Amino acid sequence: MSLQADFGDFQYRSHVYVFALKMSFLAVIFSGVIIALTIPPLGFLGLLPVTLSHAISFGAIFSWLIGGTVSGMLSLATGFTMHELMLSRAEFEKLSRTDTLSGLLNRRAFTEALDRTEGDASLVIFDVDRFKAINDRFGHACGDAVITAVSAVLLSAFDELSVVARLGGEEFGVIVSGEPLEARLERIEAVRASIAGRPIVAEDCQIAITISGGVADLIAGRNKQQVYASADRALYLAKALGRNRVVHEREGLHHAWHGLAETGANAEGRGLGSDNVMHAYGI
Prior knowledge:
Layout: H1 4-7, H2 13-44, H3 52-96, H4 107-116, E1 121-128, H5 131-138, H6 140-157, E2 163-168, E3 171-177, H7 181-196, E4 200-202, E5 205-207, E6 211-218, H8 224-240, E7 246-248, H9 249-265, H10 272-280
Parallel strand pairs: 6-7
Antiparallel strand pairs: 1-3, 1-6, 2-3, 4-5
């Protein structure tokens, strides 16, 4: 009768009762073995105050009443103590992986999910545009309301196959899986448009917000840190091109080379946007 599995399952109350029942039976069996080893020799030596059969019967009764009952009660107490500890540990683990304001996963949990991601998927880094200006103009309570509202939109827009997290501040990360690339990009763009089209009401203020996004592809064999860096560069480019847009890493290279061509053709007349694009891609 193995008890090893029970110690890993104390988060379930039913397993606590099973554990206590097993311990009671073990106590009875152990008591029965002791009785079987001690009473017959005592009877043979004439040291029993009753007959051998009565002594064995009394021993069996006491092993059930005392050994089984006491062991069961102690096991229940121990089991429920372990149950509370397991629940507390699970709650602590959940809190350590959750962003308290948005209720989304935090950066640590997102990084772990990113490392576990295999197969075809897209990594998106979203950033709320001009968030500092929102905080400065409307106050931090409104800024928190913006974070909460954006979190709700992201959580509702992506299914259970995707991973949504708040990476810190006004930055969010999403791992989009389960669809072809073009469908994933359409969904990401739809999220951007949805947020841009609905003002957020907070503290008696209506706040119009937009978000920018950078997208990189997660494919087999590609380094996850490189994917993250590429999505981050694409986000930088989306900001440099005027914000309120989503840029895929392929578009980033196109814009970067376009900016380089601009430099050669008309160095004096190129705009600040071209400089930002080239800087984002190290050109």
